[in-house]
Amino acid sequence: MSSGLMPDQQVRSAAVEGPPAPSRSLAAPFSLALAWLVMLGVCALWVSGGGVQEAASSVTGFFTSLGRLTGLLASAALLIQLAMMSRVPWLEQAWGQDELARGHRLVGLTSFTGMLVHIALITIGYAAAQPGQLWSTVVDLTLNYPGMLLAVAGTLALCLVVFTSLRAARRRLRYESWHLIHLYGYLGAGLVLPHQLWSGQDFLTSPVATVFWWSLWGLTALLFLAFRIALPLWRSRRANLRVLAAYPDGPGLVSVIVGGPGVQRLGARGGQFFQWRFLSGPGWTRANPFSLSAAPRPDSLRFTAAVVGDGTARLATLQPGTKVLIEGPYGRLHPGARIRRDVLLIGAGVGITPLRALLEALPYDGSAVTVIQRARSEAEAPLAGEINELAAHRGARHYLLLGHRVAGRDSWQSASHATWSDVDALRALCPDITGRDIFVCGPGPWIDAVLRALRLAGVPAAQVHSERFEI
């Protein structure tokens, strides 16, 4: 291992084979186009339902018609948001959980904002004839319109989810608390539905509109039930996983090995992650995402986690034989995501663990592999010894960069190399960086610094694969 900017060993090449065939999935552009078609369909329903004419008819009509449109768009965005996180395999493989989670937040914020605008415009529209009776209009809408009380409860639930998902609030909440609150988002969506279907003009104007909306809601519910509940239960039953061992694996780290007769049926690859539930007492209902820290064996899987909360603290207490439920595998940090033969792995903190598994799983096809590992100290460098041993075995280069990050600038480097620019450091460690696939995993702000340096270094976006482990 080396903490400098010179390689600590030479690359030993195996028999050279051709680079893996590029993955040219149409799932990503298709799903994006489908989402836009849904939004355009919503606008078409509004127009066909007389939305334009109503908006031009009067002040009241203007506000209520625009309120209808924003409500429709907010509802469609909410359904798209739920579909994005339903963990449909082809969506997850096309975008990756990291990208889907960021899109989920963006679409969710858009939906929430549209919902608030919808409420404001509808209220103003109904109160326009009698501006002095705004409050009585609000009370009348809430109490006398079908499904409105449920919609108010659903709105409050969605507000709770959005406010606790803001970065400042998220930092103050334990993962377990945040996860529990986040489940209220599904409750909120369900409570809003009756109001839309019972009193929404655009849901009832024609059989086409009714079928369109019921189909959207039904398909979203079906995706959730199939891929968030039925498929994980089926996979868990087939794999029949149980804890084989749990042990400390460094300061603040714990490794868990699980095994079962159906491990191979899961189709997991080194670098991917699962959502894990351990049926060992309180807290078993909450799933925690942990990446594999070793390439899958025919009969076992291993992950390594940092102890940062209640969910991770109980890992060290797991007893052999504890039954395990899983969702996954997920993530695009695996050999199949490559479009180039040569590879650069960059990880910080516990984010190095899936890259260690990826290093082990990469084919011995003559490809050049470089590993850059960031840690505050050698004692706090997860699995550094294993990574160094693997690197030596396959003829890869392993750099261990120690120390705190550079102060005063958003840098991915350690302070000991503050005189280097982020781009120059990458090029010194990996001169042919633009010709490699880059796999990055670590804390969000650190990943942002790495991605910024990669862009400045001229690495094509298609060759960069990242995963933020705190999501």
Could you please describe the fold and organization of this structure?
With 471 residues, the chain is α/β, with parallel strands linked by helices. It folds into 3 domains: 27-225, Four Helix Bundle (Hemerythrin (Met), subunit A) (Up-down Bundle), CATH 1.20.120; 240-330, Translation factors (Elongation Factor Tu (Ef-tu), domain 3, Beta Barrel), CATH 2.40.30; 338-468, Rossmann fold. It is built from 17 helices and 11 strands. Helix 7 packs antiparallel against helix 10 (184-199). Residues 1-22 are annotated as: Disordered. Its cofactor is FAD. Residues 236-336 form the FAD-binding FR-type domain. The chain crosses the membrane at residues 26-47, 67-85, 106-128, 148-169, 181-199, 211-231.
Chart the SSEs and their pairings:
Blueprint: H1 27-48, H2 51-57, H3 59-84, H4 89-95, H5 97-127, H6 134-144, H7 148-165, H8 167-172, H9 175-182, H10 184-199, H11 201-204, H12 207-239, E1 242-248, E2 253-259, E3 273-278, E4 288-291, E5 300-306, H13 310-313, E6 324-330, E7 343-348, H14 352-361, E8 369-375, H15 384-394, E9 397-402, H16 422-429, E10 437-442, H17 444-456, E11 464-468
Parallel strand pairs: 7-8, 7-10, 8-9, 10-11
Antiparallel strand pairs: 1-2, 2-5, 3-4, 3-6
Helix pairs in contact: 1-3, 2-3, 3-5, 3-12, 4-5, 5-6, 5-7, 7-10
Average of per-residue pLDDT values? 83
Rg is 26 Å
Structural class: alpha/beta
Pick out the low-confidence regions.
1-24
Query: Beta-strand percentage?
Result: 5-15%
Give the number of DSSP strands: 11
In what order do the strands lie side by side in the largest sheet?
9-8-7-10-11
CATH architecture of the largest domain: Up-down Bundle
The major sheet is characterized as:
5 strands, parallel
Please tell me what the overall shape is. elongated
How many domains make up the 3D coordinates?
3
Keywords: 2Fe-2S, FAD, Flavoprotein, Iron, Iron-sulfur, Membrane, Metal-binding, Oxidoreductase, Transmembrane, Transmembrane helix
Transmembrane segments: 26-47, 67-85, 106-128, 148-169, 181-199, 211-231
Organism: Branchiibius cervicis
Subcellular location: Membrane
